[in-house]
């Protein structure tokens, strides 16, 4: 069974850190673009970060640049999202997703829209509050 499982969410004070994990089973993440999306109540799902295969290209939404870092450990078949200096506006359910890469001039890029992603995790809640 092809599955993505997120973990690492929780309640943290403003300025704190969390590391989200996205572990795959039933398939290998190496060849996939991996995206982290989040959805807050009453808001649309937005792309937070993504990484293409071979770690060639990464993307961060402006609001998290300099605070979040996406990485992958192919040996563990896991992708991580390190979140530092968390703010209350980061509160949301975070989802990881795996999907095809987009190629431009022979280089792989990850998609920042949810549509192309085939596999989704169940989500993990991140709450930033004092």
Topology summary:
Elements: E1 3-7, E2 10-12, E3 18-25, E4 33-39, E5 46-51, E6 58-60, E7 68-73, E8 78-83, E9 92-99, E10 102-104, E11 107-109, E12 119-120, E13 124-128
Parallel strand pairs: 2-13
Antiparallel strand pairs: 1-3, 3-8, 4-5, 4-9, 5-6, 7-8, 9-12, 9-13, 10-11
Characterization of this structure:
- The structure is a single chain.
- By secondary structure, the chain is mostly beta strands.
- The protein contains no helices and 13 strands.
- The protein has strands at 3-7, 10-12, 18-25, 33-39, 46-51, 58-60, 68-73, 78-83, 92-99, 102-104, 107-109, 119-120, 124-128.
- The strands form 3 sheets. Strands 2, 4, 5, 6, 9, 12 and 13 form a 7-stranded mixed sheet that branches.
- 33% of the residues are buried.
- The model has no long low-confidence stretch (mean pLDDT 95).
Q: For the CA atoms, what is the radius of gyration? A: 14 Å
Amount of helix: under 10%
Distance between the termini: 39 Å
Q: Beta fraction of the residues?
A: over 45%
Structure at a glance:
The chain is mainly beta and 130 residues long.
């Amino acid at each position: 069974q092809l599955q993505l499982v997120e973990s690492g969410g929780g309640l943290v004070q403003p300025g704190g850190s969390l590391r989200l994990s996205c572990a795959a089973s039933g398939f290998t993440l190496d060849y996939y673009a991996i995206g982290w999306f989040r959805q807050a109540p009453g808001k649309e799902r937005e792309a937070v970060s993504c990484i293409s295969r071979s770690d060639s290209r990464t993307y961060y939404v402006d609001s998290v640049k300099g605070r979040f870092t996406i990485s992958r450990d192919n040996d563990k078949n896991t992708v991580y999202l390190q979140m530092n200096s968390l703010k209350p506006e980061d509160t949301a359910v975070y989802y990881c997703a795996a999907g095809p890469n987009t190629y431009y001039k022979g280089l792989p890029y990850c998609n920042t829209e949810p549509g192309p992603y085939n596999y989704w995790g169940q989500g993990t809640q991140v709450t930033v509050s004092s």
